[in-house]
Amino acid sequence: MTPTPGTPPTGPGRPRRPGRRLGVAAVAALLLAAVPAGAAVSADAATPKSATGPQGQKLTVSATTGLDPAGAKIRVTGEGYGTTSGIYVALCKDNGANRVPSPCLGGADMSGGSKNSQWIVPKGDPYEGELALPFGPGGTFDVEIEIRSEGDGLDCADVPCSVVTRADHRASGDRTQDVRIPVTFAGREPGEPGGEGVDVPAGTVSYKPVAVFTSAGKPLDLLLHPDSKKLYVGADNIPDTADTDERGLYVLNPEDGKAESRITDAPGSTGALRASAAARISGPLPGDGVVYNYPLRGVGSAKAGDTAATGVWLAGSTITDIAPGTAPGTVLVAQGAKLSEIERATGTATRSLTLPGGTQFAADHARGAVWFSDFASGKLHRVDLASFAVTASFDLPGTDSIAGFTEVDPASGSVWVGVNRSVLVFDATGKPVKTLVGKDLARDAAFDAAGGRAFVAWQDGGDLSDPANDNNGTLTVYDSTDFTPAAKDLSLPGNQTQLGAASLAVEPGGATVFVTSPAEGKITRLTRQVSPLVTQAPADRSVRAGEEVALTARAEGTPEPSVRWQVSTDGSQTWRELDGATEPVLTFTAKSAQDGYRYRAEFRNDVGTTRTAPVTLTVTEATGGDTGGGNGGSGDTTTGGAATGGDGSTGGDSDGDGSDGGTSTGASGSSGGSGSSAGSSGSTVGGGSVGGNTGAGTTSGGSLAATGITVISVTLLAAALLGGGLLIHRRARRRTSGLA
């Protein structure tokens, strides 16, 4: 709900007012002023971390790593925010620079009652009071929010999350108020494999059409032979498309679709050969070849290179379904509601059973069962293969219209029945376990037992006068254990059911799938693709200036992904690619100016882009105070702002290469000095005497990186730390520890 400006929204609760804590935020911000903008204050989860915004805003969060997934209270402070627009403070999905952080835990608080977010507005705003807190002096605020790893459409185990500020609902398109500080929860720390999927989740599986075969007439059924690896296609003639009769059994090369063989003739009712379509393929023959049904009552077999099929013509009614029998030379045949086991050599029925109704079935030889579907009566019957008797019957809800398919998952024995726009799944005992609903008509299913995947072909109804139809079908893929989607849905343009049902064949392992479109007279070959999934990610590093740094990241995907390393110098607000950094291992020499820099690897392929979680580089001064200026290093090669400082002993030698995208500090020596290549003021707190125009010497060693502004003197800083500032810091730490 978005309230009308000037009309306060309603909601429970009254948020806390900032009260005296605004002053604490201002002093805390002063104590953090010497830290580079956006850099982490400490790797300790309970130590505040800060980042700066596009208009100089500073956001500070009390805890950012190892947070309790079930819930944690954190303190969030800010300063320098505008006095003319309101903001929300919340935990949100971090979508990157200049992209709205969304969704957010608890949504956008417009009621004043949320504990997950805070609404902060300029003083005098109509919503100030019961609904929103006012900014303090200088655009400051100090609030507490309760966050957890999952809720309200947000799951921080799958997507990057940050505590953010963003403009409120009255200026939702304003990105100038966006400031983000990444947070992680226990069990999902930076450096954990997986990665952040940018456009699709990491490891997303999809299928891509790579070839279309039109060499097999009107395709009715498919089988990819497990031994010969040839693609067998049962086909009918496509009317009015060619002068030749296209009926028959085709043998195709599965890579390019070229027809290696075609069997057109099979014995008819008198035993004489005649041109026949191949309606439904029963199963493979050892080595090569298939058993299949040809209209109306023919049971035949053939393999590549045969000039005609061998077969028998059955007595009785039209064959409506066929499957392998219990012995090598037999088949199971449905002729309407009559189920028989037939000797292929003679056509003799060795046993028969007439069911209450039905036309199609699926055989589960591993569990000794046949599942017979009676769509007209809404029943699924289980036939025991040993006794050849019905042992149980189950309801098939919603079967009063279009019948689809009946198939058994060979791995689990679950029964999949396509009915209208649904697939009803029963376990091996007949218990209903899942209903899968699609937007099209469920027409066929196939299984990859090795990969634990079920593939379903859905066809459009083909009647464009019906608003539910668009002439396009769909391929869906499910985990055959928990029935969750295992790949992105793929649209099948033009695949509609008016001229025949679609069928599927899946290569073992699921890398290749074939799907027919009888209405178009084609078979589409699909290959599996996987977006990059991080298998090895870098971790935070702490080094001394001058030491070598090696960050490693690896990912898998199909096609094989490429890698580019990126760096952020402003606390993950913006990122840029490092020139030439295209190998799994990034190596460079650390410089003091790189303290607080964040690094990540970005992997890309045709499916999507995945990034490792950002890691922080902490660089401390080398012993002796002689490494401050540094020599550049290979980890950061983009020209940026001024480089200041230099070796104090040389009287103001600048760093020279300007490669850090900001300012770097020189170590102090005996004579001091300062350097500037772009007008910035350098500052040094070193181990020698004071020298130059901006340096301040101490005898304690170490240095503070320049922030681009003149740093307060060491005397004043020490006074602040040893006086009221230290007291405030201690109080703040006590309050922070009580929030975790």
From TrEMBL:
In this chain, the stretch annotated as Disordered covers 45-64, 612-694
Q: Domain (Ig-like): give its ranges.
A: 532-618
Composition-biased stretches (Gly residues):
625-635, 642-676, 684-694
Gene3D superfamilies, alphabetized: Immunoglobulins (2.60.40.10), Neocarzinostatin-like (2.60.40.230), YVTN repeat-like/Quinoprotein amine dehydrogenase (2.130.10.10)
Signal sequence region: 1-39
Membrane found in the keyword field: yes
Q: Establish whether keyword Calcium is in the entry.
A: no
Q: Which UniProt keywords apply?
A: Membrane, Signal, Transmembrane, Transmembrane helix
- Show the Pfam families listed in the entry: I-set
Question: Where, by residue number, does the polypeptide cross the bilayer?
Answer: 704-728
Name the source's superkingdom: Bacteria
Report biased composition (Polar residues) as residue ranges.
Answer: 49-64
Q: Where is the composition biased (Low complexity)?
A: 612-624
Listed name of the protein: Ig-like domain-containing protein
Tell me the organism.
Streptomyces microflavus (Streptomyces lipmanii)
Q: What phylogenetic lineage does the species belong to?
A: Bacteria, Bacillati, Actinomycetota, Actinomycetes, Kitasatosporales
